[in-house]
Design brief:
The chain has about 160 residues and is mainly alpha-helical. Helix content is about 70%, strand content about 0%.
Length: about 160
């Protein structure tokens, strides 16, 4: 990968990776740090990464760095990483969806965000998350079922 191709990767994929991270961890500063680490790792491996596979490499690296940070933070704080949320009292649909997403296991959350928010194909999601296409489909199906159970009908949130 050349310097020009690296810069194209930063321009083309930086925003979507940041959105993916912010949807997962809800902390802008941490998302920026992970994004910076991801592009630093890409720069260090630029001679090994093919430009046409850089998108997959970037998302995979960002995902694994995010998971490592979550594990480190939960060990440091002594938390399990799960939270309980009240279902009632929300007026904002985005807030309800975000609360529902936070209830999902990390791999399901990442899969559903990559598919429904970022528009990736099952094969690409599998490459990013180190899963088979069948596993990706199962995780997305289970995530959608859990989201539906949590949210219920649209009438409940309006």
């Amino acid at each position: 990968m050349t310097e020009k191709e690296y810069n194209l990767c930063v321009d083309n994929f930086g925003d979507s990776v940041f959105r993916f991270l912010i949807k997962n961890i809800k902390d802008s500063d941490s998302a920026k740090d992970i994004l910076q680490d991801t592009f630093t790792k890409l720069w260090e491996k630029k001679s090994d990464v093919d430009f046409f596979k850089a998108k997959s490499y970037i998302f995979t690296t960002a995902y694994h760095t995010m998971i490592n940070n979550i594990r480190y933070d939960s060990q440091k704080d002594g938390l399990t990483g799960t939270q309980s949320f009240e279902k009632n009292g929300y007026n904002d649909i985005n807030e309800v969806l975000n609360r529902a997403l936070e209830r999902l296991p990390e791999v399901q959350k990442a899969a559903i965000l990559l598919r429904d928010y970022e528009g990736y194909a099952y094969k690409e999601i599998g490459e990013i998350l180190s899963l088979t296409q069948e596993q990706v489909k199962i995780y997305i199906f289970r995530a959608r079922v859990k989201l539906k159970e949590y949210i219920g009908s649209i009438d409940n949130i309006i």
